[in-house]
Design goal:
Structural class: mainly beta
Number of strands: 98
GO molecular function: cell-cell adhesion mediator activity
Subunit structure: Interacts with SHTN1; the interaction occurs in axonal growth cones. Interacts with isoform 2 of BSG.
Keywords: Cell adhesion, Cell membrane, Cell projection, Disulfide bond, Glycoprotein, Immunoglobulin domain, Membrane, Repeat, Signal, Transmembrane, Transmembrane helix
Oligomer: single chain
CATH class of the largest domain: Mainly Beta
Distance between the termini: 110 Å
Number of domains: 12
CATH topology of the largest domain: Immunoglobulin-like
Strand content: 35-45%
Membrane topology: Single-pass type I membrane protein
Mean pLDDT: 80
Family: Belongs to the immunoglobulin superfamily. L1/neurofascin/NgCAM family.
Low-confidence stretches: 1-118, 1246-1354
CATH architecture of the largest domain: Sandwich
Length: 1354
């Protein structure tokens, strides 16, 4: 569909100044309607002359294609048709950049198209609107239709010439014509008739204003195509040779299509080896045995003749051979190494290179004298044809094709010469002139060779006309000087060379007419800001009227640089703004009259994308969100937005959860690789559109590597190569090589090494005697890939061990042994059969023989050693192939015993009230009898000096024992954190790996007096509106003698504090102080400190005032309402009451008072509080509290039941059930009765076996050392200083079961039980003792209260 729009004076992207309507470049593709789609650029079949337009109008308009699917003429007299054409939307996707640039201008033109009213009484010179093609081929069965149509007023008269001779169709009864048309219709009654009409035809259309002519029409009569007779013989070739099957189709003026098939009409499959040339021949670069067929048939299809003809089948016989010879490429088409090719501008160039060779050659194309025109280049026939579309002069040059295979290469050079049929640079245009004016008609044409230009007037060559000085021809330009009305005529310019002919008709119309404005009055134009808006004022008249625009109060617009009036009268406003809206008036004037119209402009806000989408990287499976915040002008009745992916609109369907569009934002759920691409947010109105794009990159951990291969296999090394998987848009950082072996840990994969992500091979150094399998894992920033499939297995050769075991050590568990241990070597380090360890040891410093022992695994136990003596130890790996490297010598020791000496010369220096320094003499090494662990300082506070110097005695159960550990051979320590004004005692002992030695005698010390702690409490009591009483108590930690108190107070408010007032209270017994003359409206802050000789203590700070507290309680009318898990409490504040903080507490029913929990606080003026997270079906106590003088006080309490069903109790908590408690109580009672009976029986005659008792004694030197760290304190109150009373059995000792025949009578018949001062049991049985165990013995296992029980009680 073609519509007519104005041609602008200024050059803009879609209109060219002074470009004739009949030129292909004068027709421009535009975007139609409201969608971002673009029409393809097409050359119309008809010019503006064929649109029945007046010649004056054609000068000021151009034709626009608005329909991609069909090209047809449009009568501009129908406004509805014009608008329908403009709204037509092409279905091809648009380039976004083109849309952004062109759409506003297109919409501008669309809004300015007007119905063109041509005066009905205006006569028009002739114009030919349609004629047949310059080459017209007919076949024997075709009818002949020589077209010639035109427009003009008065009506046209048509005539024809044939071979430059006048031809009268009325004299030939075979020719039919139609009134008002010049078309000749010749029905074909027999096949021989068409040849009589063969020749060159031309049509002439005339009225009183002149004559227009058509181009020459060359009518060609062709016979039906037929194959030439030839003898077809079978072709026999050996396998691997090349062969050409010739087609030789008949020649024809019209195009043809060649197809090779067999007798069953199956196409011959073509590929790089077998292909058809442009000449129709079938080429085999090398034949295979399966190429043998008896029926290779060439089919030729002639479209114009509607005919398909077949050639006789060709039989191809391929003889198998066992000696196929490889050969380098050779050209079959074209022959030789050089060719010259002529191409015609605007056509399609095909350069062909077909070769033979074995293996099948590959073809490559290059241009030798420049760059390939990539936008117009494509390759066909498996790259054997180079295709360049729309050939241009710059394509002239040299092109080279190169064929290569493994045997060599061959080249062919094409020299391409580009020729050109005549084409317009500037063609003469129809125009209207007034008497006396000079007409200039330009006929500028290019071509190669240079075209010959001839001029005609009314179809008569200029050379056949009488000379006239008013006609001047120079350089392709015709001037007609001082025109008069009788000079009205149609002028023809014809350019020709050997490649074609170009013809243009242009009429010169000389007349006078008053101005008429063809644009509708009071047209309303809409535009958006920053857009170019044009308001039309198409005027008609002769001479051509001058156009002037006015705005508001008749102000000429040309006084403002923002406005521009084009030559056709259109007013264009660039970069329109809101203030440009208003009423405009167009005035058209010539010497005959004047005319005016009004135009109304409304400039709206441009559509904007405030928040554009941003480029996003999303991992597979996650969701991607693109934002697009759009702002439309509120006055638009229609506005919309949408999303596109890679140019295709996204449709949000109900049955798909992939895309979700809400509030102009796009969400893509469960992203996968198919979602990657460009996402575009588009927003549009009827006037403008805008779009922004962002890229979605889908990332993930890499794909698994594959194609693992082993190469360069050596005894203990191999090279592994692999192919990486997809990196999923995140570069691979590393490849991890893992291995698995099938002997020691089959099925378990271990990491062997890793390489950089750009490396695809690894040289692997391997252990002997291992059957390896490898796999590769790729790693990027998102994680590890799946492992590759396993490689083939690789077995390494045996060898002697390459290393010895680690972590070799010798340690004794008893004083008379040493256990040699080491870390077992992994099977991967055995390196061969018969793996074992060779263990050697000897006393350190003795160069004697080594003790040796071969074992399969650790440990080796050396017996009968002295206490804690050093040994040299070696452990070496060996197998049946040989021994490992020479091992390192390790020093080990036999077993340790407990130290037998306490540190001496313990000294204490008091540093300050909370720190002391302790020193001592080191214990000799021989008395340590093991590895020195360090020293421990046990200290305890015996009592604190209380108020007035009195001692605060503490019971033994409240004495807190501390331990300070000094690691290594250090003989002093500083202990901090002591309580001031207190009595302490300490002991020092040494410890080794076995345990602690005996402690030093207790050494007492006293810490000096310190500053006191804060007073125990400080309360305020209101005396009057100007006085307060302060009440307090002594500090809980006086840290010395309290000598008095120091009181300070000051007024405070939100911004600053007032002057401090100081009061010294010298009486240490004072507990109350009253302040007078206080400001009744002020808030005060009080600071109270206790004093000792060491100074002031920490202050206790509170705030208060003499202001009467708010009336209590602060709220009234308290109600509550519960739902499933909350309770809403509501109240009414007291009238005139200031805001008071209300605290809400709750307690689950049947809980103790300490379980009250504070839910939160709220101002009393809020009227309500919701208590959340309560358990359904549960009873609660709820309290409301408010501050009253000095503390929070409860002013309301009630019981609340939360609505709902209570959750069931935990089924596992049966311990609280009554039956269970009763059962346990009965069991305990029975056990107690049995124990009493047992004691009675033993006291009457039972005996204890002393021998059994001694056998069960615990080795006092087998106690493990506590794992303490240097400088740490131990607050274990129950640990005694001695430490030697607790023991454990020796490794080889046997413990006899409880129960013995020994009697208590053998030990004196009584039990001496000792207790602490608080009554706790600390003693053991005393009486007759046997053996040498000394103080470490007790009644042992025979006593119901043994050392273990004593330790637990302590």
């Amino acid at each position: 569909m073609w519509v007519c729009l104005e041609r602008k004076q200024k050059e803009i992207p879609f209109a060219l100044e002074n470009t004739p309507c009949t030129s292909p470049s004068g027709f421009h593709a535009l975007v139609g309607g409201l969608s971002s789609h673009r029409s393809t650029l097409k050359t119309p079949r008809r010019t503006c002359e064929h649109l029945h337009l007046h010649p004056f109008i054609c000068k000021h308009i151009f034709c626009v294609c608005t329909d991609c699917s069909e090209i047809s003429c449009l009568d501009c007299s129908s406004a509805a048709t014009v608008l329908a054409g403009l709204i037509k939307v092409c279905t091809m996707a648009a380039d976004p950049g083109f849309i952004l640039l062109v759409t506003p201008l297109i919409l501008l033109l669309c809004s300015s198209v007007q119905l063109i009213q041509i005066p009905k009484d205006l006569t028009v010179p002739p114009t030919i609107t349609e004629h047949s093609n310059e080459t017209y081929v007919v076949y024997p069965n075709d009818d002949i239709l020589l077209k010639c149509e035109g427009t003009g007023d008065p009506a046209l008269m048509f005539r024809w010439t044939k071979d430059d001779e006048f031809f009268d169709p009325s004299k030939d009864h075979r020719i039919f014509t139609t009134p008002g048309s010049g078309t000749l219709s010749i029905p074909n009654t027999n096949g021989l008739m068409v040849k009589s009409f063969q020749g060159t035809w031309r049509c002439y259309a005339s009225n009183k204003f002149g004559t227009a002519i058509s181009s020459n029409i060359h009518l060609v009569a062709e016979s039906t195509p037929k194959w030439q007779k030839e003898v077809i013989r079978p072709m026999t070739v050996e396998e691997g040779e090349s062969v050409v099957l010739h087609c030789n189709p008949p020649n024809s003026t019209m195009s043809r299509r060649i197809i090779w098939m067999n007798s069953t009409l199956f196409h011959i499959v073509q590929d790089q080896r077998v292909s058809m040339g442009l000449n129709g021949n079938l080429y085999f670069a090398n034949v295979l045995s399966q190429d043998s067929h008896p029926d290779y048939t060439c089919h030729a299809q002639f479209m114009a003749a509607r005919t398909i003809i077949l050639k006789e089948p060709i039989e191809l016989r391929v003889k198998p051979t066992n000696s196929v010879k490889y050969r380098k490429p050779r050209f079959l088409m074209p022959p030789g190494s050089n060719s010259i090719y002529y191409a015609l501008r605007g056509t399609v160039l095909h350069l062909e290179c077909i070769t033979e060779g074995l293996p099948t050659p590959d073809i490559e194309w290059v241009r030798l004298n420049g760059m390939m025109p990539l936008a117009r280049v494509s390759y066909e026939n498996f790259k054997k044809i180079l295709r360049i579309s729309d050939v241009m002069e710059e394509d002239d040059g040299e092109y080279q094709c190169m064929a290569k295979n493994t045997q060599g290469s061959v080249k062919h050079n094409y020299r391409v010469n580009v020729k050109a049929a005549p084409y317009w640079v500037k063609k003469p245009e129809n125009n209207m002139y007034v008497p006396g004016e000079t007409a200039r008609l330009d006929c500028k044409v290019y071509g190669n060779p240079i075209p010959n230009i001839t001029w005609r007037i009314n179809g008569v060559p200029m050379k056949d006309l009488d000379p006239d000085p008013k006609r001047q021809i120079k350089d392709g330009t015709l001037k007609l000087i001082s025109l008069q009305t009788e000079d009205t005529a149609v002028v023809q310019c014809e350019a020709s060379n050997q490649h074609g002919t170009l013809l243009a008709n242009a009429y010169v119309y000389v007349t006078k007419l008053p101005p008429q404005i063809l644009t509708q009055d009071n047209m309303q134009y809409e535009a958006v800001e920053q857009m170019t808006v044009c308001m039309n004022c198409y005027a008609f008249g002769s001479p051509f009227p001058t156009i002037e625009w006015m705005r508001d109060q008749w102000t000429p617009v040309l006084e403002d640089d923002r406005y521009n009036v084009l030559t056709n009268g259109t007013l264009c406003i660039t970069n329109a703004q809101k203030e440009y809206s208003g009423l405009y008036t167009c005035i058209a004037t010539n010497d005959q009259d004047n005319a005016t119209i009004n135009a109304i402009l409304d400039v709206k806000n441009a559509t904007k994308i405030l928040v554009p989408p941003k480029d996003t990287r999303v991992r597979i499976g996650d969701s991607a969100v693109f934002q697009c915040n759009v702002l439309f002008d509120s006055s638009f009745q229609e506005s919309s937005m949408s999303w596109k992916k890679d140019g295709m609109e996204i449709q949000e369907s109900d049955d798909s959860s992939k895309y979700f569009i809400e509030d102009s934002n796009l969400t893509i759920s469960s992203v996968d690789n198919t979602d990657q691409g460009m996402y575009t947010c588009m927003a549009w109105t009827q006037l403008d559109s805008v779009e922004k794009s962002a890229v979605l990159i889908v990332v993930d951990r890499p794909g698994a590597p594959y194609d693992l291969e082993l190469s360069d296999q050596q005894d203990h090394s191999v090279t592994l190569t692999w192919t990486p998987g997809n990196d999923n848009n995140s570069p691979i950082e590393d490849f991890i090589i893992e291995f698995e072996e099938d002997k020691f840990e089959p099925g378990t994969w271990h990491e062997l090494t890793s390489v950089d992500g750009i490396t695809h091979l690894a040289q692997l150094q391997l252990s002997p005697y291992v059957n390896y399998q490898f796999r590769v894992v790729a790693v990027n920033e998102f994680g590890r890939s799946e492992a590759s499939p396993g490689s083939e297995r690789f077995q390494t050769a045996e060898a002697a061990p390459e290393r010895n075991p680690g972590w070799v050590k010798g340690e004794g568990t008893n004083p008379d042994n040493m256990i040699i241990s080491w870390e077992n070597m992994k099977g991967l380090d055995w390196n061969g059969h018969g793996f074992r360890y060779l263990v050697k040891w000897r006393l350190q410093g003795q160069a004697g023989e080594w003790h040796k022992k071969e074992v399969g695994q650790p440990p080796v136990i050396v017996q009968n050693t002295d206490i804690f003596v050093p040994y040299e130890i070696r452990v070496q790996a060996l197998n049946d192939i040989g021994e490992g490297p020479e091992p390192k010598t390790i020093i080990g020791y036999s077993g340790e015993a407990l130290p037998d000496m306490a540190p001496e010369n313990v000294g204490i220096e008091v540093l300050n009230r909370s720190a002391i320094k302790v020193t001592w003499s080191p214990v000799p090494k021989k008395h340590i009898r093991g590895h020195l662990g360090g020293y421990k300082i046990y200290y305890e506070m015996e009592h604190r000096i209380g108020i007035h110097g009195k001692q605060e005695l503490r019971s033994r159960r409240h004495i807190k024992h501390h331990v300070f550990i000094v690691r290594g051979d250090q003989h002093h320590a500083t202990i901090q954190g002591l309580e001031p004004f207190s009595h302490y005692s300490l002991r020092v002992l040494v410890f080794n790996g076995k345990g602690e030695g005996p402690p030093s005698p207790a050494k007492p010390f006293q810490t000096p007096e310190g500053v006191p702690g804060e007073p125990a409490f400080l309360n305020l009591k209101l005396v009057s509106d100007t006085s307060l009483s302060l009440l307090w108590d002594v500090p809980r930690k006086p840290n010395g003698h309290i000598t008095g108190y120091f009181l300070q107070y000051q007024p405070v408010n939100k911004t600053h504090a007032g002057v401090l007032t100081n009061i010294n209270i010298s009486d240490p017994h004072q507990r109350r102080w009253t302040l007078q003359d206080l400001d009744p409206k002020a808030l005060y802050k009080f600071y109270l400190r206790a004093l000792t000789a060491a100074g002031e203590g920490v202050p206790l700070i509170i705030e208060g005032s003499t202001v009467q507290e708010a009336e209590f309680p602060p709220v009234l009318n308290i109600t509550f309402h519960s739902d499933d898990n909350s309770t809403l409490i509501q109240w009414t504040p007291r009238e005139g009451q200031r805001s008071v903080e209300v605290q809400v507490r709750y307690l689950k029913k049947n809980r103790i008072a300490e379980d009250w929990q504070v839910s939160g606080s709220v101002n009393s003026t809020q009227n309500f509080y919701r208590l959340l997270k309560l358990e359904p079906g549960t009873n609660y106590r709820i309290q409301l509290m408010a501050w009253n003088h000095t503390d929070f006080m409860t002013f309301w309490e009630d019981e609340v039941t939360v609505r709902g069903i209570a959750l069931p109790n935990n089924q596992g908590s049966f311990a609280t059930e009554g039956w269970f408690i009763g059962l346990i109580s009965a069991i305990v009672l029975l056990i107690l009765i049995l124990l009493i009976l047992c004691f009675i029986k033993r006291s009457k005659g039972g005996k204890y076996s002393v021998k059994d008792k001694e056998d069960t004694q615990v080795d006092s030197e087998a106690r493990p050392m506590k794992d303490e760290t240097f400088g740490e304190y131990s607050d274990n109150e129950e640990k005694p200083f001695g430490g030697g009373d607790s023991s454990q059995p020796s490794l080889n000792g046997e413990i006899k079961p409880l129960g013995s025949d020994d009697s208590l009578a053998d030990y004196g018949g009584s039990v001496d039980v000792q207790f602490n001062e608080d009554g706790s049991f600390i003693g053991q049985y005393s009486g007759k003792k046997e053996g040498g165990a000394g103080g470490n013995e007790s009644s042992g296992a025979a006593s119901p209260v043994n050392n273990t029980v004593v330790g637990a009680l302590e």
